[in-house]
Fold this sequence. Notes:
The protein has nine helices and seven strands. The protein is of the alpha/beta class. The protein has a five-stranded parallel β-sheet. Helix 4 links the parallel strand 4 (103-108) and strand 5. The longest helix is centred in the middle third of the chain and has 19 residues, at 79-97.
Amino acid sequence: IPSIGPSVIPGYLTGIPSRELAADELPAIVEQFRTASRRVKEAGYDGIELHAAHGYMLLGSFLTPMRNRRSDAYTGRTAEGRTKLLIEVLQAIKQETGKDFPVTLRISGYERAPAGRSLQDTQQIAPALVAAGVDAFHVSGGVIDPLTSQMVAGSDYADGHNVAAAAALKRVVDVPVMAVGRIHDPQLAEKILREGSADLVAMGRPMIADPELAEKARSGRSAEIRRCISCQNCVDSMEKARMNCAVNAFTGREEELLPRPAER
């Protein structure tokens, strides 16, 4: 199945160019987001998160000038053009689900790539996204490359490497801002919150390394946490169809390695 996108750009993982969407195809896509949000709400969920980070999902690819080379109303050359599809989607979701159904937006604060979106650009577009319906920002960073190097950062990246971008967004919006990215330590998470750099902290890989991380932190057992080492094994293993973790042997084998009572 050929991929689609804002412009004819080769995929970073496949090298296969995407098909450029025609402007008259976009209203149907907005409608798909609308009806999907209705199903989510009817299923009993408390809210929804839209993924517009890293430049590889549809909304994110329109949002980055790296992949959006259009010259129509959805052009990547202007902030208004880059955000047009996302704003239409946000407005449709809010019309469908109501103001009390929160929408979180995952976004790269800084794309860290030539021709990518700068942090100042993200600050510029953020208030318009809030006006369209964003109730909270989930601030990641980087754009897709063959190694997902800036999205799922290895140990060569600093702890909390997206926190500065989250703090920059907080200065221009009045909705909660969440930080993510190499925040493995509960003490670091508390420091980020205490200093006001973010309102919430998200963890992904640390919860794979130790699903009991939050409970251990809550109950004063932080020293017992099995810590993520940012080795990228979880990402690399997905190519073999089953995720596993270098420090947690249960990951991906939960049905095989069930604890059983000792025979004696």
